Amino acid sequence: xxxxxxxxxxxxxxxxxxxxxxxxxxxxxxxxxxxxxxxxxxxxxxxxxxxxxxxxxxxxxxxxxxxxxxxxxxxxxxxxxxxxxxxxxxxxxxxxxxxxxxxxxxxxxxxxxxxxxxxxxxxxxxxxxxxxxxxxxxxxxxxxxxxxxxxxxxxxxxxxxxxxxxxxxxxxxxxxxxxxxxxxxxxxxxxxxxxxxxxxxxxxxxxxxxxxxxxxxxxxxxxxxxxxxxxxxxxxxxx
Length: 239
Description:
α2 packs across α5, α2 packs across α6 and α4 packs antiparallel against α6. The strands form 3 sheets. A two-stranded antiparallel ribbon has the order 1-2. A two-stranded antiparallel ribbon has the order 3-4. The chain is globular, with a radius of gyration of 24 Å. It is mainly alpha-helical. Among the domains are: about 110 residues, no CATH class; about 25 residues, no CATH class.
């Protein structure tokens, strides 16, 4: 299934993800809505990762009553508005059938996260999580500091408003930054050995494969693999 955040588990070869979740539970949560930060060589800042830890813990710990059709519709509406016009001054979203300013609602959520940030800092020492939360609050109040605004500003200032030129320049800068990092002969040998092992394993698997693809596909999507009992055609329930 598709979602911006979804439960996951490492699967065995040939195993369906839903079967792995049902049999062995959630192993980790996949956050799929993050874009790469073009201004960071590795695509994300440590401060951003700390904020994600805070926010995800808030999602885990906050009350979450059952949703309704109306709320699901509001969520889709709010996601679209935020993605398309999130930096627009005074932008309003819908909450419980009433308008609420994006900045106001976002500020409420971030303040609810403060005890979590403080608890993480108390456990780990320092104040890096509180700093990450404060940075998020500052960005909420100054949308021109957000990565999307910075991209547009650099496109206008240095690339004649060409996104292609901007991304090429950033790609070259990231390449140079990564190539400048130290790289030992031992590490190179380790990666070459891992590559050779992977290629050999691929050859072994392909040589042992005798099942026609269509037969494999039918077995892979079969309800029987999930322990499901078909009911009324395409409807199935777990047993």
